[in-house]
Amino acid sequence: MISKHVVDEFKRILGDSGVMQKEADLLNYAYDAAVLTPVLPGLVVRPGSSEELGAAIALCNDNGLPVTVRGAGTNLSGGTIPEKDGVVLLTGAMNKILEINEEDMYAIVQPGVVTAKLAAAVAAKGLFYPPDPGSQNVSTIAGNVAENAGGLRGLKYGVTKDYVMGLDFFDAFGNLVSTGSKTVKCVTGYNLAGLMVASEGTLGVFNEITLKLVPPPKASKAMMAIYDSVEAATETVAAIIASKIVPCTLEFLDNFTIRTVEDFAKAGLPVDAKALLLIEVDGHPAEVEEDAARVEKIAKEFGAASIQVAQNEAEKNKIWEARRTALSALARLEPTLVLEDATVPRSKIPHMVKGIEKISEKYNLPIGTFGHAGDGNLHPTILTDKRDAAAWHRTEEAVNDLFDIALALGGTLSGEHGIGIAKSGFMVKEVGQAAIDYSRRMKRAIDPKSILNPGKIIGR
Ligand SMILES: Cc1cc2nc3c(=O)[nH]c(=O)nc-3n(C[C@H](O)[C@H](O)[C@H](O)COP(=O)(O)OP(=O)(O)OC[C@H]3O[C@@H](n4cnc5c(N)ncnc54)[C@H](O)[C@@H]3O)c2cc1C
Fold first, then answer.
1. pTM summary value
2. I need a surface site. Which of 52, 259, 268, 307 has the fewest CB within 10 A?
């Protein structure tokens, strides 16, 4: 229980409207987008300014209160599941784009800015912020940085970390720390901004974020390659990468996902196809034409039954709408959906897809597989029912097997969804005990009372 004295102190700092303690309010922040048991916090606070944010963190530290900072709560690894009776700190009221600098091509934003709003604001000024997680209409920039979010354009444009130039963050004591710069190059001191990326709220709380912007591509072309065999599709992915063409997007959908999306979205997808590749190339118009022609040729050589090239913006949008609908479409089929993101070197995609099919058979669980094939980052999505103990046990075993296969292929537990609490128990399999011990020592030095999102990533 958080004492009345401390609650009053939060109200003094944040005002009555910045502090929530009713059970109905607390329930809203007991869970996130991961399939994990909700945990009720003791208090939810909503600072509206940097001063309030720093003071709220200092108050948590003074009283040894665990604090889980939360953007939109869309993470898929339990990163915003709070400690029981702890504090949830919302950043939604700190949602201003502070500067878009066209000359030096950067933006400075508060933590709660919604990703798509930033992308639209910079596009209106003729610039481009490429990271585009599927959740971009609700996810926040701070959540993206704290998870190192990726998206459909990762193959060519990289992920969130590639755009973080600098950060102001509050440490566990409520001190404001500045790191990075507005310059293209900066090697002054440790790369603390790099340390903050993917730190999932465990090392500091972002206050302002400086992001790199780039010029938008002048042209683009999208196509859908249709396959009668999964092998042919996955081998095409490896062949495109090996040909040294870098599409901005190279996505895979298996037959189960194709049928489910079509049933839901009526996007005109070929339901008999065993697999689809959705591909977009962008850049200078001449380069786009050349790359698109080469990709088409490779896709045919590797057995595409047919290829549909989008003839206009509407057709292009239709292709991407179909891809973006995949998760929602699959979610309609069963009460529980476990979306994984184990990632492998790109040449190992065919092996990973085969492995997923075997797991689906072994545990008798439907798995829809789609995702960022060009990044080696597939999203095998297990459809199950958490209320059915036997099905849930099989699901846990299946997830374990997925991680084992990805690691055996030289891959990683998470390409973009983070570790949180969902995967912290598996960390040792990938990084080993020494890396976990090192990380724990660092965390203890930075946050001696372990108030910042305790238990996430490295356990306790
Ligand atoms: C439908 C759907 C599609 C998705 N698609 C993608 C995708 O394509 N690619 C991808 O990478 N992810 C995807 N995700 C996962 C998720 O949206 C991303 O991880 C996103 O970055 C989370 O942003 P958020 O604002 O919701 O953060 P939250 O979920 O609120 O928080 C995520 C983490 O960030 C920390 N955090 C939040 N704010 C701060 C702050 N100010 N300072 C320090 N730490 C902070 C939290 O403590 C937590 O650990 C998807 C999720 C859904 C539900």
1. 0.96
2. 268
